[in-house]
Amino acid sequence: MAYLDGIKSVEDLNLDGKRVFVRVDFNVPLDNGVITDDFRIRQAIPTIQYIIRNGGLPIVASHLGRPKNNPDPAFSLKPVAERLSELLPEREVIFAEDCVGDGIVEQSKRLQPGQILLLENLRFYEEEEGKPRGKYATDEEKAAAKKAVKESQKKFAESLAALADVYVNDAFGTCHRAHASMATMVPHFGENKACGYLLQKEIKFLGGIVYDPEHPYVAILGGAKVSDKIGVIESLIEKCDQICIGGAMAYTLLAAKGVDVAASRVESDALDIAKNILDKAANSKCELLLPVDHVVSTALDDTTPCTVVEKFAAGQMGLDIGPKTREKYADVIRKAKSVFWNGPMGVFENPRYAEGTIAVAKALTECKGNTVVGGGDSAAAIRQFGMADKVTHVSTGGGASLELVEGKELPGVEALRIK
Ligand code: AMP
Questions:
Q1: What pairs with residue 372 in β-bridges?
Q2: Distance 293 CA to ligand 1 centre (A)
Q3: In angstroms, rounded to a whole number, what is the distance separating the alpha carbons of residues 15 and 67?
Q4: Where are the domains of the chain?
Q5: pLDDT digits (tens, 9 = 90+) for 391-412
Q6: Predicted local distance difference test score (pLDDT) of residue 357
Q7: Would the CB of 322 count as within 6 Å of ligand 1?
Q8: Closest CA to ligand 1's atom 20
Q9: CATH number attached to the domain at 213-406
């Protein structure tokens, strides 16, 4: 497809005897050092296996979380190395205690066929993101620090590039970031750069609905904030036939319409943005659907009673879409030929407020069209409900999938393009 024009696949590279830098997104959720969801690790395995089967020596690199210090043991990739070796019992996973430096170059040169070198967290260096982490007294000091990090980012990228002969990007979830390992280091490889299977798959399915959707094209958007998703909503208004809104963001839009939403979570500083979105939709061919009933409570705990209302009473907050809204959204989804879903319909972490999100997920599984779930909470939700294998595609990237759907260029993908 057009979005991949000029981009090599891992299958186009000569891998035999080559050290292959594989940028993956192993940014997995951890609870006290225990991985609670290994979806992203599993999704990168086909590319790693392909590289090994074709004589390549994978040097696998990722970030994990948002470490503040270098190094920060709470964000070590060590548990990921352990999980990777459990998932690949026939391979030997070697964990490198750092991601750059002479010792790591030596380790990369000693790699034997069948072994995998997993580097320590790239974000143990502020150069990975290219943003200074210190506190600065003045704007001038901050600007100087920013400039210095940008300069040292080039050196960091060179050190990463010194570890390998070819470059493969399979980190879809990070492709919206122009970080050292995603973009700055890539020119060092000339034309020896390619996308892995996961990146290819993500672009095929997400790009398919962005650039060539079959109609009716329906988007389901939920989650906490309208302000996080302005760009994507505006872009979807131009492309979709219907957009169904749920989650807390629905209450900011309802408030902007003048509806009394009582104690519901409203972004008061985003009301103008919300009005703008409503006007845009009213002047388009796209129908913007908002909830007509709600599951409400006066507190977000497990004991305060919850009830279904169409009109809010004082003190009530909307925590999920109600049964009428669920039925309407499900009906719209079932009739669609293309569906993109991002964001939960309510506080789905609490089973009392998960019914709306479950109803949307179920309707996606019943839709005969192309059904794509953006990453983040909606991807976690559909997998938690055991329905992930009944939709066309569940993305590994939250922010990246939103930017792609918005029509933005992804720096990680652009770095791979051979002009
Ligand atoms: P986001 O990160 O924007 O996708 O937002 C996801 C979060 O929004 C989840 O943690 C939900 O619990 C939360 N959320 C969804 N609906 C509501 C609501 N009606 N009120 C408060 N929080 C909500």
A1: 340, 393
A2: 17
A3: 33
A4: 2-200, 213-406
A5: 999 999 999 999 999 989 999 9
A6: 97
A7: no
A8: 248
A9: 3.40.50.1260
